[in-house]
Write a structure and sequence with these properties.
heterodimer, A: 328 residues, alpha+beta, Rossmann fold, OB fold (Dihydrolipoamide Acetyltransferase, E2P), 2 domains, six-stranded mixed β-sheet, five-stranded antiparallel β-sheet, B: 264 residues, mainly alpha, MetI-like fold, 14 helices, globular
Chain lengths: 328, 264
């Protein structure tokens, strides 16, 4: 029995369909990511689960109870917004205590719980600051603390890291995951960043155009994309049409093919190719090569400077049979 | 380096001070005139005195007019606040598309000159179901429409700066009703816009003459109408009145600025 069960959910604004026939099952304590390009309906789906946007049909069962007819105040859901949405007129302490005040929790217990949760997000020293005195990362941790303090049944994170700079983003996402594991909190995370999704999630739900394209763990999504969209969105797949793929691989292939750039190797013999250009991504060198009139990306681990292939150099490529995925 | 930067800073300061002097000159003249015993055929006043101020501030007619002006202004501002705050909240939160309509609507009081609209108001409210011409009520209503644009703009800007929707959503999810969220989260964040617009409208309304004179006149004598009625009196006396009025508005503005800076 799943903890959160979304059944046949659909939503449209007038003639524009935002999403249709959404079915998701989430087990207790799982970390699920809704991944997709902007405008795919993932944020609206999250707002529908929270009760901030009304749905047109379907059910959202949380622990066996249908949330759809309930107002957001009664759902027992915590949410963190991309814009932090901290109350500017209140201190960190007051922001975090707000939910407890609404629940009429006695002051002594409330201040104890606020102190605990501020400890959890490592902001105990900032309790008396105002939001405008904090950095973006600190603001988002306050917002996280504020949504955790009421002990929600479900935590929703709406692109919480998108407004932060890269270093803080990496640190905070690890912190979010650690806290989520510690509390065993069922969490839905919305992002358009595939790396975030792959690193954090127990399961990824990939959405496009208001529909679920593929749902599975990070490994499945990365190595076995369901279709051309999934292959194009996750990783840096080489997408070849049937003709190009047949020419390159020297065998008859009937559909589109996706090949991961790191699954192509430079070998002593194989497919003749020429290096067009290369870029250094740090631990990986990404080559743009041309073989049989097809342009490919090839990722090679940056072991030593001596291994570097120069632009214009001729090389041979080996592509493992298991790396070639036919996609619809 | 541009030519402007080559000139000495002294030149720039001189221009600014000169401008200030030109702007302040009439006020300074009035101030000196209000403090002098008599100043007619000589270059400098013949002597200085406070007697005009003493006479003014002990005149019960002046004090009554002063009180009436305060009452009408604060009445209009209270009415405006009471109506505009909920209206703005509803427009911004539930019907953001109405903002365009509101922007046209609030410009109407500017589009019609006071003299023209007061003639219309006179006809409308002289008789009929609401014969309030000549009473302070018509002034309160009329001043409300003048304060509307100032308040609407200032508070709208303030509302747009605080990301109203996300704040309301966050408060709702934490268990607050829309009313509680509006009072605890939105209202405190509008303090700045409210203060600025209230004091701006106040200083404007406090000196309003055309409507006050045409719609009510001496039947409910406000400060400006009193000043007008005193025009044939001693110039020293009316000068003292003008300076007193100016100092009062200045004091209010200064107080508003202080209040704003303290907490933010």
């Amino acid at each position: 029995m799943s903890f959160l069960h979304i059944q046949n959910l659909h939503k449209s604004y007038g003639p524009t369909r935002i999403f249709t026939d959404i079915n998701i099952e989430i087990g207790q304590g799982q970390f699920i990511t809704l991944l997709g390009p902007s405008g795919c309906g993932k944020s609206t789906l999250l707002r529908c689960i929270a009760g901030l946007t009304a749905v047109d049909g379907g059910q959202i069962l949380l622990d066996g109870q249908d949330l759809v007819p309930m107002p957001p105040q009664k759902r027992g859901i915590g949410m963190v917004f991309q814009s932090y949405a901290l109350f500017p007129n209140m201190t960190v302490q007051q922001n975090v205590a707000f939910g407890l005040r609404m629940q009429k929790v006695p002051a002594a217990e409330a201040s104890k719980r606020v102190a605990e949760v501020l400890e959890l997000v490592e902001l105990s020293d900032y309790a008396n600051r105002y939001p405008h005195q904090l950095s973006g990362g600190q603001c988002q941790r306050v917002a996280l603390a504020r949504s955790l303090v009421t002990r929600p049944r479900l935590l929703l994170l709406d692109e919480p890291l998108s407004a932060l700079d890269a270093r803080i983003r990496k640190h905070l996402r690890e912190q979010i995951r650690a806290i989520q594991r510690e509390l065993g909190l069922t969490t839905i995370f919305v992002t358009h960043d595939q790396e975030e999704a792959l690193v954090l999630s127990d399961r990824i739900v990939l959405m496009n155009g208001g529909q679920i394209v593929q749902s599975g763990d990070a490994e499945t999504l990365y190595t076995a994309p369901a279709d051309a969209f999934a292959a194009g969105f996750i990783g840096n797949y080489n997408l070849l049409d049937a003709d190009a793929a047949s020419r390159l691989l020297g065998q008859q292939i009937g559909s589109r093919v996706a090949i991961r750039p790191e699954a192509i190797h430079f070998a002593d013999s194989g497919i003749e190719a020429q290096i067009r250009s290369h870029s250094l991504l740090g631990n990986v060198i990404r080559y743009r090569v041309e073989a049989c009139g097809v342009e490919l990306l090839v990722d090679v681990l940056n072991r030593s400077a001596a291994d570097l292939h120069h632009d214009g150099q001729s090389v041979s490529l080996a592509i493992g049979a298991d790396a070639i995925r036919e996609v619809a | 380096m541009s030519p402007a930067e080559k000139r000495s800073p002294l030149f720039h300061q001189l221009v600014v001070y000169l401008l200030f002097l030109i702007l302040l000159l009439p006020l300074l003249g009035t101030l000196v005139y209000s403090l002098s015993t008599s100043w007619s055929a000589t270059i400098l006043p013949s002597g200085f005195t406070f007697k005009w101020y003493v006479a003014l501030w002990s005149d019960t007619r002046f004090l009554a007019a002063f009180g009436r002006s305060l009452l009408v202004c604060f009445g209009a501002l209270a009415l405006a606040l009471l109506l505009i705050l909920p209206l703005l909240f509803v427009v911004n939160y539930h019907f953001p598309k109405l903002d365009g309509v509101m922007n046209v609507l609030i410009l109407l009081p500017f589009a019609i000159p006071p003299v023209v609209s007061s003639v219309g108001l006179m006809q409308l409210f002289a008789s009929g179901p609401l014969p309030i011409l000549g009473t302070p009520w018509i002034l309160v209503g009329c001043y409300f429409t003048i304060a509307l644009p100032f308040m609407y703009r200032a508070i709208t800007n303030n509302l747009q700066a605080i990301n109203l929707r996300d704040l309301m959503d966050a408060a709702h999810l934490l268990g607050a009703s829309t009313w509680r969220a509006a009072f605890m989260v939105v209202l405190p964040n509008l303090r700045k816009g409210l203060m600025v617009s209230v004091f701006l409208s106040f200083s404007f309304l406090f000196g309003e003459f055309v409507f006050a004179n045409l719609l009510v006149g001496s039947r409910y004598e406000t400060l400006q109408v009193y000043l007008y009625n005193m025009r044939n009196d001693s110039g020293h006396f009316t000068s003292a009145l003008v300076i007193s009025y100016f100092m009062f508005v200045l004091l209010m503005t200064w107080a508003a600025n202080r209040l704003n800076k303290d907490k933010s």
